[in-house]
Amino acid sequence: MISPNYYLVTLVIVLIANVPCEAQLSSTFYDRTCPKALSAIQTSIRQAVSRERRMAASLVRLHFHDCFVQGCDGSILLNDFTGERVALQNNNSVRGFEVVEAAKRAVEAICPGVVSCADVLAVAARDATVAVGGKSWIVKLGRRDSTTAGSKALAESDLPRGSDSLQALISNFANKNLNERDMVALSGSHTIGLARCVTFRARIYGNDNVSIDPGFARLRQQQCPQTGGNDNLAPLDLVTPNLFDIKYFKNLEQKKGLLTSDQVLFNGGSSDSIVQGYINNPRSFLSDFGASMIKMGDIEPLTGANGIIRKTCGSAN
Ligand code: HEM
Predict the structure, then answer these.
(1) Which DSSP category does 192 fall into?
(2) What is the pTM of this model?
(3) Which residue has its alpha carbon closest to ligand 1 atom 25?
(4) Does some domain include residue 308?
(5) Containing structural domain, residue 143
(6) Distance CA 118, CA 150 (A)
(7) What is the pLDDT of residue 6?
(8) 113 and 208 housed in the same domain
(9) Contact 313, 77 (CB under 8 A)
(10) Centroid of ligand 1 to alpha carbon of 100 (angstroms)
(11) Where along this sequence does the record place binding of substrate (predicted)?
(12) Active site residue: 54, 61, 63, 65, which one?
């Protein structure tokens, strides 16, 4: 006769196996369920960046803006034009959606319904960085997707602004468990990409009270008038705008940071020594950047039974 204990133990095992646990992200998450996912994403991102170098910058930023609003849950990718997508910091600014969607399609073609959009974006940000000369890092995986976008108000309070002071930036990142060094390293991604005149006008006309190289100010004023031309673009790194290097930090040393939030990182405050350290040891920037991207990718992910795997990134199934 089978003892009653046998049934009890079996029941407990069945129950435990069905309880969704608070899973941790892991770099091997898709090793069994979709072993070719990462190479499919990489191929897709390499193609997109070779078509347009700026896309590398846009993808890195998209991952950042995803993670800072409601966690790294792919929420920014949803085609909801009432929430975070139309926040001041995103509206008419974030881009790269069709590239993420194409990478997701490539993954869906080999293993449908397995890989989240949040993970596709995290991998895309890494592959984009590498495609323009950055150093690789190991992306942790297993994020699931949100069913809704973050609100406009949440995005406006949680995303930093180009006019922010050093203290504001430090506390904004601290709210996401990122320290001052992470903040400086991650700002180093402004070594690639472009910004709109409206985001740096106050600075180049001397209205932010943060010192600026006069020749650089005049140069930028040529494409960014006092009124009008809000969407005119300028490179965040005037020296090598398409290369992931430390020129961004060198510019700060020369008071040629484009945004106020760039220049405050080297303006006689606590982060000067971090910037100086990266200039002295470029490799330390490249490795810190990867480590901080891993930390950023850990912000409030949906795991286990939370969230969904979207079929397309723009809509919640
Ligand atoms: C420290 C606080 C930060 C502030 C205040 C800030 C602000 C900005 C602003 C105002 C722009 C220009 C947007 C436009 O004109 O449409 C921009 C662009 C960009 N940001 Fe940041 N950012 C910050 C941190 C970061 C971080 C942490 C990352 C990534 C890890 C990042 C990546 C980028 C990239 C790559 C671009 C260029 C995007 C493109 O060309 O499409 N930024 N940022």
Answers:
(1) S
(2) 0.94
(3) 187
(4) no
(5) 24-159
(6) 14
(7) 52
(8) no
(9) yes
(10) 18
(11) 160
(12) 65
Which of 201, 260, 208 lies closest to 230, judged by CA? 201
What beta strand segments (E) does the chain contain?
194-196, 233-235
CA gyration radius, the chain: 21
**Residue 16 pLDDT level (bands cut at 50, 70, 90):** very low
Among 83, 91, 77, smallest CA distance to 145 is for 77
Nearest partner of 310 among 154, 27, 81, 77, judged by Cα: 77
Mutate to test the pocket of ligand 1, among 85, 126, 177, 190 (most ligand atoms within 8 A of CB): 190
Instruction: Report which of 102, 106, 122, 84 is spatially closest to residue 36, judged by C-alpha positions.
Output: 106
Protein residue whose Cα sits closest to atom 24 of ligand 1: 187
Binding-site residues from annotation for heme b? 190
Name the domain count of the chain. Answer: 2
The answer to whether the beta carbons of residues 234 and 251 sit under 8 Å apart is: no
Residues 180 and 77 in one domain: no
> Looking at the domain assignment, is residue 302 inside a domain?
no
Position of tokens 């601290």? Answer: 174
Does residue 306 form part of some domain?
A: no
Amino acid at 22: E
Domain contains 16: no
Task: Write out the binding residues for substrate.
Answer: 160
In the residue annotation, 63 being an active-site residue is answered as no
- Length in residues, the chain: 317
